[in-house]
Structure formats: C-alpha cells, structure tokens
Amino acid sequence: MAQSRLPMRKIRDVLRLSAAGLSKRQIAASLGIGPTAAGACLRRAREAGISWPLPDDLGDAALECRLYPAPAAAAKDWRSRPDWPAVHRELRRKGVTLQLVWEEYRATHPDGYSRSRFCELYRAWEGRLSPTMRQAHTWLARSCSSIMPALPTYHSPAAPGIGQRS
User: In the predicted model, what is the mean pLDDT of residues 68-79?
Assistant: First the structure.
C-alpha cells in the first residue's frame, strides 16, 4: 500500500530526535508514526547528505526537494510501436499468423522489435481487451412470437369450445 509523505514538521522532528540519540522505535513512539516511516525518513536524509542541525537557509520546500527528488524520466523506447488494433484485426483473417504480421512489421521497421518481444507486447495488449462479446439484437429476434408456436398451449375446460390440447 502506498504511504503518504510525512509533514515537514515531523521530518524535522525525526532528524532532531535521531541526532539526540533516540532509536527508530523511540522516535516513532514519541511522534506517533510507524518505525518504518521513521527509518525511511532517516534513510532518505542519509542518502541526501542531510543531518541535524539543518542549515538556516534550508526551507521546507528545499528540504522536500532534497529528500524526495523528482524521479528520473524513464528512457523512452525509440522503437515504433505497432498498431495493435490493426494487428488484432489482421489476425482474425484466415491464414494470418503472428509470425506473418511480425514479418510485415519488420519489413517496414527494420530496427523494430524482435519476434519474441513483438509477441510478448501483443499478448500483453491482448490481455487488456474485454472478453465480452457485444451483439446487436433486433426486436424480432428477441420477440416471443418466434418461440410461441413451439410451445404447447393448454386451455381451460370451462371455456366453450376450448379444452383440447393443440
């Protein structure tokens, strides 16, 4: 479960109490936070090179930026992604296999994905599809009139001329 960040006041208190010689559990008990949160705060401060006493010019925003740096941008995949819906439509045609679709993709994109990665990405995309099949039904197909002749009808003997099974 994702945790929310501690307020800057509590982070400063964790650093201060740690410098005073208290353990993580003692710090956590005195501040009303978990020992894991206290340890994580001390680990981040150690990684950022921050110790108590904090410099006077280090405000809350600067402290937060040093303790919680922005994540490094993930390297963008330079390969061109196939059009998965078009691949899916192609695979519905008779005689078309994933191997054939990959060969066509590789012919147009020589530096594209390898066959194994192409298949892996397609299977992952296909796994996100909804398995529900949507069908449009017309009123006539759903009407009871189409099944009524198949059902036997029974009539009340009290009604005149009725009472035989049809």
Answer: 72
The distance from CA 139 to its chain's CA centroid, rounded to whole angstroms, is 39
Helices (H), 32-132: 35-48, 60-67, 84-92, 98-108, 115-127
Q: What pLDDT digit, counting tens, does each position of 91-110 carry? A: 999 999 999 999 999 999 88
CA 154 vs CA 22, 73, 145, 147, 150: distances in Å:
89, 75, 17, 16, 13
5-19, 90-104, 142-156: which has the minimum mean pLDDT?
142-156
Q: What are the tokens at 98?
A: 């994933």
User: Exposure of 18 by Cβ count < 10 A (0-12 exposed, 13-18 middle, 19+ buried)?
Assistant: buried
How far is it, in rounded angstroms, from Cα 117 to Cα 149?
A: 57
pLDDT at 164 over 80: no
Residues 151, 138: contact at Cβ < 8 Å? Answer: no
Q: Is residue 92 part of a domain?
A: yes
Count structural domains, the chain: 2
29 in any annotated domain: yes
162 pLDDT exceeds 70? no
Domain containing residue 99: 84-127
Q: How far is CA 109 from the centre of its chain?
A: 29
